Amino acid sequence: MANITASMVKELRETTGAGMMDCKTALNETDGDMEAAVDWLRAKGLSKAAKKAGRVAAEGLVAVAGNGNKGVVVEVNSETDFVARNETFQEMVRTIAEVALTTGGDLDKLLAAPFPGSDKNVGDHVQEMVGQIGENMSIRRLAGFEVSPGIVASYIHSAVAPGLGRIGVLAALESTGDQEKLAALGKQIAMHVAATNPLATDVDGVDADTVERERAVYREQAKESGKPDEIIEKMVEGRIRKFFEESVLLKQAFVIDPDQTVEKAVKAAEAEIGAPIKVVGFIRFGLGEGIEKEESDFAAEVAAAARG
Fold this sequence. Notes:
Structural class: alpha+beta
Number of strands: 9
Radius of gyration: 23 Å
């Protein structure tokens, strides 16, 4: 039997929103396996499946840059949201994205590339700006697409300036058809991705372990019905289909036209664009996602700063 500590119970509670005693029971039932405990709570209907918003946060900007068939998205973090409104910081992030367009999706290559108008590379320039702006900052991640023939469309949600905001999306489409109309479709798909945050482009792209975890949870839930095993399996497969419809880009209802899926919308667009279209993939960066930021008392911080 695993030693279930208070910190483990606290972590599970913050992850799932379930009650403390339920979390302790889940950990005991799963021998301290945190991931299995999350699934146990879900199967029992006890997980709210949400972290407290304050537990995952980081500031700064997400930037996109592109030139038709090529695009990149970059996240640059800072300590406070005040920096995101700083025009000097905004210009630096915009320039970093433009440089990233020439270096591809390799972070090390980006950091080593010359920063335009400076005698330093990108990495050193960022460190120099730390002293100028007065906050710690870093280039956290970048990714990109290049297709031929086709387009890489981009979209920024919660924009603070052109190409800069809190959510950045790329959508890559291959086609020999009308590139202007293809770009318009790509922009709509990028907006859809920003809104729905799918797990994968198609069903085959969903991680097999993720599907199996979902299936196991659904099976435990279905057993509560008391129905025969063959009925339970049909119930589970129905839930898996629903999971794909909610989580896979091409299977989702298109936010632009919810009466059809993204897949059907792309197929319908082929007639107007004049050629087959393949949705190669998407990239979505949400500012600060996956980064845990220590909660603090802002008023206390200001008072402390005032005292010197």
